[in-house]
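The records we work with from here on pair a chain with its fold. These numbers are not coordinates but entries in a learned vocabulary of local backbone shapes. To see the layout at work, look at the sequence and tokens printed below.

. . .
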Amino acid sequence: MGPFFPDFSDSKLMKSEIVRKEMGSLERDYAELAKLGTRYESFDPQGKELYIESALDVVDRFAIFLTRLKLSEEFSAQMFIKQYSVRLQEYGLTINSLIENTKKSLEMMREEIPKM
């Protein structure tokens, strides 16, 4: 699939319409935020706040989706979690530390927004 997930289309996990919608929504929202992020500095304070809120929402939803994968007994989901964890370890991160560090970075960005 997109930037986060391999092709799970043949897995039992993807038989669930809820899971398919959740993954598709995450990928679309992530792609949109990445595109918008290139213009972040040009946003007014309200636009920056909205961007940060949207990014925090995607991070929270991503964490929930990863938990769903961790809890799944599906082989492809377990392999994804293992491979993703190994990739993160190369940078000294775990899934949890990635999520927390991303949230901290977004909160630091929020603190830098000029107050109106």
